[in-house]
Amino acid sequence: MWYNGDAGEKKNMVRYKEFTFHCSHCGYRFSMELDPEDVVKFQTGLFSMDDIMNYLSKDEKDMIYSNTCQTCWKNLFGEDD
């Protein structure tokens, strides 16, 4: 998947890659397409996920940050109202 933040600027094109994560509670595998550079930035601990992965939903960010799938998250913490 390609993403161009500004349709007129080719220099901003990003090649997304699929990353697979495992839920630390049930072992479920979930995949997301992410900018590889953003993954490296997040792993360094120097950048906030909200700042570098603003293209993800809150639920997607929570799953990556906590290694918890949506089903386990709901079982552990209940559903958001």
Features:
single chain, alpha+beta, two-stranded antiparallel ribbon, 22% strand, 4 helices, two-stranded antiparallel sheet, 81 residues
Spell out the blueprint of helices and strands.
Blueprint lengths: L1 E3 L8 E3 L1 E6 L6 E6 L1 H9 L4 H4 L5 H9 L3 H8 L4
Antiparallel strand pairs: 1-2, 3-4
Structural description of this entry:
This protein has a domain of 47 residues. The chain is built from four helices and four strands, in the order ββββαααα. About 6% of the residues have low confidence. Strands 1-2 form a two-stranded antiparallel sheet. Strands 3-4 form a two-stranded antiparallel sheet. It is globular and about 40 Å long. With 81 residues, it is of the alpha+beta class. A hairpin with a 6-residue loop joins strand 3 and strand 4.
Number of beta-strand segments: 4
- What are the low-pLDDT stretches, counting only 5+ consecutive residues below 50? 7-11
Straight-line distance between termini: 33 Å
Query: Approximately what portion of the residues adopt beta-strand conformation?
Result: 15-25%
Radius of gyration: 14 Å
- From the helix content, strand content and strand pairing, which structural class follows? alpha+beta
Number of helices: 4
* Helix and strand sequence: EEEEHHHH
Major β-sheet strand ordering: 1-2
Mean of residue pLDDT values: 84
Largest sheet: 2 strands, antiparallel
Helix content: 25-40%
Q: Which outline best applies?
A: globular
